[in-house]
Design a protein that fits this description.
By secondary structure, the protein is of the alpha+beta class. It has a 6-stranded antiparallel β-sheet, sandwiched between helices. Strands 6-5-9-8-7 form a 5-stranded antiparallel β-sheet, with helices on both faces. A 5-stranded antiparallel β-sheet has the order 16-25-24-21-22. A hairpin with a 2-residue loop joins strand 29 and strand 30.
Amino acid sequence: MPSGDVLALVDEGGRVVEWGPAAEERFGRSAEEAVGRSVTALVDAVPGRGAEGPRHEGLANTPGVLVKPVLRGTSVAWQVFSAGDAGPAQDAAVLKALFTHAPVALHVLDVRLCVVRASAAGRGPRPVPEELVVGRHFTDVCSFEAPGDETVVAQGVLDGGEPVVDRLVRGARPSRGSRRPIHSVSYFRLEGADGEVLGLVASAVDVTERENAQNRLAFLETFRTRVGHRLSVPAVCWEVVEALVPAFAGIAVIEVIDDVVRGEEPPPIPVREDIPLRRAAFKGLISAHPVGDVRSLPAGTPFSHVLSDMRPRLVPIDEDSSWLDADADRGDAIRRSLAHSLIVAPLELHGQALGVVSFYRQGHEDPFEEDDITVASAVCAHAALCIDNARQYMREWIIASTVQHRLLPRQPVAPATLEISPLHLPDPEDAGAWFDAIPLPGARTALIVGDVTGQGITTPIMMGLLRTAVHTLAALDLQPDELLARLSDTASRLSAADAALPPMDPMHHGPVTAGCVIAIYDPVDLTCTVARAGLPELLAVLPDGTSAGLSVPPGPMLTGSGRAPFPATTVSLPQGSTLAMATGGLVDQVLAPAGRLRPLLDRAPARPLSDLRDTIASAAADGHLPGETLMLLARTKALPAERVLTLPLPADAEAAPVARAATQRQMELWGLDEETAFTTELIVSEFVGNAVRHGAPPLRLRLILDRMLTCEVSDGAPSSPRVKHARTIDETGRGLFIVASLADQWGTRHHARGKTVWAEQPTGRSTPAAGPTGG
């Protein structure tokens, strides 16, 4: 509490800090009512002060009250006395002590803002005689970094009377290579008894250490929140330099041991002198080496020293820094960037070395201090942890990515009736998308796009297993809906097996989901049959430029627990149409009607498919699509009519000779050799005979010449033929056994009105590409 005759103590902001008994008696307010409140509000509320009295001028204008400044720490407070308690002698003593011994720089200014009186602290660290200061403009005496700004502020206080308290002002740099001080500056107007404006009192307290300490703590807090969100070593390094420049340094360079960038285990400390490091990230104006460059650190430099003993170093840079010549390119870049201060700190974790970080300050930036080494070390400790986490993830991702790329087709199958162009945009955090183009009997092609989402290497493994299952099921010549149903059974079993793994098992990575869309294109009927499990519907761009989504009812995800069906839809598709199937961000960007890249696809008929794919890839890369994205583009062609024979057959014994005669004529027309013609006649005869004996009308024969020669016989019965192993004395039952021996493959395809039995065999000659005419 204030002692003696002091009534109260008021801080720089005008709020009561202490309130003595004498003040309680004089102003009629208790200490509980007064402390923390504005002194102006208290005085205005004093009984007896009417509207005619001065208001909003505080205690200084209260009759019988005297206000004196006093230093409290690094701030100025104001003591309130009764006017009769402090005489002229005491006033003089207070002022003398304040201007002689107080560490606060005090300047009394006249109305021209020129110095009238200055305290010892206000005349600089080596006080000059007061007569050399008096009469000069206060900004010439105080050496502010922006003297014009301070003149404007001081003039505003002089004109308006409103004090400015605790304004942070940076001082001019005392000399090259030194830091600029930071001051807390306050301005108060001086007025006479009659209200005449006499000038200002300007006080300044050096708060450089306090502000720098707060700035360092604030920077570290921000740095830790900004760094560590990415899952690749280069991306984490970019996060680091983005957070460092310009908040802490003017230039930042991160060099990481090359094995670490590739996901390998970091070497133990100490490391060999010639270990290669990769420049993982750089931010500044002039770089000695491009990002991605791999080389060892130059010997005899702060960089190599830090890597050898893992101790950070603060190094001033000047013309006498001979180590700059150890690496001519690096030294030249440092000189050209006007760098004058350097901190080199190690990246190390658990006794293993990851690399080094170089922090530079240049030009007019303040040089580093010893306290900045602590900040740099904290930065590197957090960065090392984030880099190591990313390294471990990258190692797993590299394995997963390698598995995925090994499982994807190296070159897409290019049937004569389809032009195919895939677009795959991988992502380090996602690796489960795939596509396939599988030839089917009857010159048809199955187009497949799938996507597995999950974590870790489980995702590409699941993708590979599903892709294998698709190929196996496609060989059975199933319709898309039935193929997806069986694929869903496989995916559910695989997902359940993975979920049953113990939580600590390295292959247990949580739930995995999978989607797939299958489109089977028939170049003879010019139709496309589509079924989908979870993935978006296809988009078709017709030859006239119109486009529309293929309205296919969605089925459940492949790994779903339900037993919902996968409806299939068959649509007509003229030759020259372009199909687009996609996953990930390209669905919204390209397939959606309002997608950003949809106009590119709408112009598909006028462009080669490869050009369209490259254009979409370039535009998609500019948009930074999230996650892995895959698109399959396919342009349809018709099988020429002269390469297809379709013949209705009678449902009696006449069917076989009619079919054999037609087959013989077509073999001659196609120019096939006698052996192929004889085998084909035998297969046709057996198929037609079985259809007559065991099938139902209508009967139809179809011969297709494409990459393979396909024989098809359709009838209206749903039952499937099977191979019998006839005994020696049996008179029948050997037909399909012979067919299975002669054909490359054979099978049965079911449809709404019965079945089709087919067999494929090589033609013995090359076949021309599909022509422009329809079939």
